[in-house]
Amino acid sequence: MAEINVENLKVVYRGVILALQGVSLRAGAGEAIALLGPNGAGKSTLVRALSGLLPQYDGRVLDGKIVVNGQEANHLPALKVAELGLTAILEGRPIFRYLTVLENLRAAAHKLTPQRQKEITDEIFTRFPRLYERRFEQGGYLSGGEQQMLLLGMALLTEPRILVVDEPSLGLSPKLTEEVMRVLNELRRDKGLTLVLVEQNARAAFAIVERVYVMEQGRVVFEGTAQEAQADADVMEFYLGGAVAGGFAEAKRYRRRKRWV
Ligand SMILES: Nc1ncnc2c1ncn2[C@@H]1O[C@H](COP(=O)(O)OP(=O)(O)OP(=O)(O)O)[C@@H](O)[C@H]1O
Ligand SMILES: [Mg+2]
User: Looking at ligand 1, which residue's alpha carbon is closest to its atom 12?
Assistant: First the structure.
């Protein structure tokens, strides 16, 4: 039984904007998949749908099915989805900017016993020594990479089985992006997590996932292994052209702009 199973999902915003037009995908237990695609493809919409957050964005599921850990989750509120073991880190690094690192972590740990909270916080500081150094600093003063580590720490405090991460590399240098991917891969391996990685940086994602889905305009336009995606010239050039650094000409960038903006 797949941990996440999405069938023919249609999502609409404000009752009129069809953002997902029948998306199907799955992630098995312990599997890492990537969701790739250009701006506006519907990646974050899928993340919101999975995590029960669509109502906050004036969106709703029109049709289709979401099954999380064997349970239908279409219309579950976010808290119930979290109880199924799914934790999502949303796009844009939503930390509490005026709370310190420690306070952010405490806020994420409200459901744990003090003992468990301490164990996991110790683990977080061991994994991310930089966060320990900055534990009394306000979240808003952390660098992008440190904020991403803080978010991962906060996610660990929810003891997830399924981790959904929306564009963790956004705005990070190549070096920091690599660091974030390494950490995600380690977490996944150490904890047997199922990982859904949403990325525009396809190359970074290929390094740590088994399978990829490429979305465009609310549809899945490619599904295959990371190797198959990389071997598919159309996928690489047309859908992921801007996302794979180097080698692609400016002319293609122009073509993408015409298609997607
Ligand atoms: N709250 C909203 N209200 C109305 N339309 C929305 C809302 N959020 C997203 N959309 C629209 O839904 C479509 C999919 O957006 P979404 O944010 O899911 O794309 P994305 O793949 O995450 O893009 P990006 O790479 O830019 O983050 C877009 O056309 C977008 O304009
Ligand atoms: Mg997005």
Answer: 19
